[in-house]
Specification:
The protein is mostly helical and 448 residues long. It is built from 13 helices and 2 strands, in the order αααααααααααααββ. It has 3 domains: 5-114 and 336-370, no CATH class; 117-325, no CATH class; 398-438, no CATH class. The protein has helices spanning 5-16, 18-43, 48-76, 83-142, 147-167, 178-223, 228-251, 255-267, 279-311, 326-332, 338-349, 351-370, 380-396; strands at 420-424, 431-435.
């Protein structure tokens, strides 16, 4: 087909870049296969030889599939002109792209960003453990807020007992009687409760220090360069130890113990028998002990309410570290690795651009070819037959003149029969009659 200059140049350019297109497609398929191999090797379990051969076979299958698929698309899509057929090919190409992403692209992303995604998982888990440790520590220290109230109550009962002993501030009679004994008893119980709360403070501080040391080791494992697998294993070991420390911190919470002790103050209140020497003193001792009972009940209610507020705080749920493979980490934290995902998908789907370019170029060539006139269209076979006939006519010395103007019809008396052909030679301008019926079609021209 004879083409106009622009269509001809486009056709020649397409032929020129065909080798480059195949080479580029092969390189892209090979690159995808290599990164697929790296991604598969990170998620397979088994012996080293099994993992190696399984990853090689899978990556080779992916490379062949990608090369074959895009070879078909590059050859067929540009040649299809029907709208329905082209839509069908586009749908087929979309399905193929989804399958390529499913079998290759996510593994490529795992190979490109697998280690970074695993480190991201370790960092997120570390942050969760740090929050749990701080929360458990805060809950444990919340019971320490009851200590000032307990100490103040202990000092109050001890002070009243001293005043009653020295000056008879409550009964009006000095000495160590039933009232002094009761107040001393309440002060001692409060002091013991305060000692319990104070003792837990040291244990809480020790556990929090151990947990902070574990967190420091885990941070070092996250930030240290090197292979991620051994670091992840060590991180898991540290996470187990830290979980035990957090659980121990929750067990040191003395809020429940304070609540039980406060309840015992009121429910287990035992007043001694008044031992006054006179009925009036006995009566006064009974009145004071009843007042002490009411005061102890009020103090018990206040401590119980404060302990309930502390106990209402949600406990720290036990966190369990779940190790992830590089592929699983890339999928879970895909939003943090969008550039890696874009590169992994582009390796597999870049031939889409080549398919679209070839489709546009072929459409342009068809448009230019349609603009040719019918007189300018000639097949190669017709061209060869015309050239052969022209050479034979030149060899026979026969020349067909091409008149500049349209000749008028000659007036002849006898019309020429169809069996004769008039041939005009340029030398003598004579007419030679050729008997076409006396020779076969396959014979060559007769000499003039």
């Amino acid at each position: 087909m004879q083409l106009k200059p622009n269509a001809y140049r486009l056709n020649e350019t397409v032929k020129g870049v065909e080798t480059m297109t195949r080479f580029a497609l092969a390189v892209l398929a090979l690159a995808s296969g290599v990164y697929t191999y790296l991604g598969v090797r990170g998620i397979l379990d088994g012996s080293a030889s099994f993992v190696f051969f399984a990853a090689i076979i899978y990556s080779a299958a992916v490379s062949v599939a990608i090369y074959a698929f895009w070879s078909f698309m590059l050859r067929f899509v540009p040649l299809v002109t029907s709208g329905t057929q082209r839509i069908g090919l586009f749908l087929t190409m979309a399905v193929g792209c989804c399958m390529i992403i499913a079998m290759s692209s996510w593994l490529n992303a795992a190979a490109l960003a697998g280690s970074a995604a695993t480190e991201q998982h370790l960092a997120v888990t570390l942050q969760g453990y740090a929050e749990d440790l701080d929360k458990a520590h805060s809950n444990a220290l919340a019971a320490q807020s009851l200590l000032p109230d307990v100490q103040r109550a202990a000092e109050r009962f001890s002070g009243l007992a001293a005043d009653e002993r020295e000056s008879g501030a409550l009964t009006g009679t000095t000495g160590s009687g039933s009232v002094v004994q009761l107040l001393t008893q309440m002060g001692t119980q409060m002091t013991q409760l305060g000692t319990t709360i104070t003792g837990s403070r040291d244990e809480v501080a020790s556990l929090f220090e151990q947990g902070s040391a574990r967190l420091a080791s885990m941070r070092e494992l996250v930030s240290t360069p090197g292979a991620i697998e051994p670091r992840a294993d060590s991180f898991q070991t540290e996470a187990v130890q830290l979980s035990a420390i957090i659980a121990a911190l929750q067990q040191t919470d003395v809020a429940a113990s304070v609540k039980r002790a406060a309840a015992d103050l009121s429910a287990g209140f035992i007043a001694p028998v008044a031992n006054g020497q006179s009925a009036d003193l006995v009566n006064r001792q009974d009145q004071v002990m009843e007042t002490v009972r009411a005061s102890v009940a009020a103090q018990s209610a206040a401590l119980s309410a404060a302990a309930d507020e502390i106990l209402a705080t949600p406990a720290v749920e036990q966190r369990r570290y779940v190790p992830l493979s590089s592929a699983e980490a890339v999928i879970r934290y895909w939003q943090d690795f969008i550039p890696s995902w874009a590169g992994a998908i582009s390796i597999d789907l870049l031939p889409v651009v080549l398919v679209l370019v070839l489709m546009i170029v072929h459409d342009a060539m068809r448009k230019d070819s349609e603009s040719l006139e019918e007189a300018e269209n000639i097949t190669a076979a017709e061209m060869l037959r015309a050239l052969a006939l022209y050479r034979k006519m030149e060899a026979a010395g026969v020349v067909l003149p091409q008149p500049l103007t349209t000749p008028a019809e000659p007036e002849v008396d006898d019309p020429v029969t169809v069996e004769e052909v008039a041939v005009v030679t340029p030398d003598d301008a004579t007419v030679t009659s050729i008997d076409s019926a006396s020779r076969k079609r396959t014979e060559g021209p007769r000499p003039a």
